[in-house]
Specification:
Layout: H1 23-30, E1 49-50, E2 56-60, H2 65-70, H3 77-89, E3 96-100, E4 107-108, E5 117-118, H4 123-140, E6 144-148, H5 150-157, H6 163-166, E7 171-175, E8 178-185, H7 188-193, H8 197-215
């Protein structure tokens, strides 16, 4: 009897992750990932980018509309705000590595040609994408991870993570078999949605300054 199951039904990227090679090989392999159903509707895989030897890795939730179209993380309005906040806190954006917990854009769309509305990934989808993030961490070996928002925090630290409880603090946890230091903060898109955007932005910068002090 012929099996009718597809790779995405297993909800794991593991079979697609190459055993050898650096970030370029990883990025190339990720372009063909079918580890969960999200690839079906997304334009393309949006893999991490930046300094391969960065001291700081920034981990967000998932690509947005602009990222999905351009194939790079944090190229939309939230990315521009993040770059500004990083520079203000004393972190040069070009010396960081930025990626997302989930590599495909998840969205809802009322009808074709209507605006695509971001939809948060499930824990199952985040777990499926985990092998990519684990490999990125192993290759970049950052000194510090800045966790951007609740979804990224849950992907790295488990479903009980609450960004409001631990933002702006330095955590030490085992992540994908590596002992890591992390500083959680809000996702820059949350700053853009805030009623008091200036206060929210100042809070983001303050959390990033904690990261700078942690690096020494």
């Amino acid at each position: 009897m012929v099996s009718t199951t597809s790779p995405e039904d297993a909800y794991t990227a593991e079979p697609f992750v190459p055993a050898r090679g650096g970030l370029p090989a990883l990025r190339k392999a990720a372009a063909g990932c079918r580890g969960c159903p999200l690839y079906r509707d997304a334009t393309q895989t949006v893999f991490g980018t930046g300094d391969p030897h960065a001291r700081v890795m920034l981990v967000g939730e998932q690509p947005g509309d602009q990222e999905d179209r351009q194939g790079k993380p944090f190229v939309g309005p939230a990315g521009k705000l993040l770059d500004r906040a990083l520079a203000e806190a004393g972190i040069e954006p070009e010396h960081t590595y930025v990626t997302n917990a989930v590599k495909h854009f998840k969205f809802t769309q009322a009808e074709p040609r209507k605006r695509r509305i971001h939809k948060s990934p499930t824990l199952r989808e985040m777990t499926a994408c985990g092998p990519w993030l684990a490999k990125e961490l192993a290759l970049v070996e950052p000194e510090l991870i800045v966790v951007l928002g609740a979804t990224a925090g849950k992907a790295l630290l488990g479903s009980s993570f609450r960004v409001t409880q631990v933002r702006g603090t330095v955590l030490e946890e085992e992540i994908h078999g590596r002992r890591e230091r992390l500083v959680p903060t809000v996702h820059p898109s949350a700053v853009l949605r805030a009623d008091d955007r200036e206060a929210a932005y100042r809070g983001l910068v303050a959390d990033l300054e904690v990261a700078v002090r942690a690096l020494g």
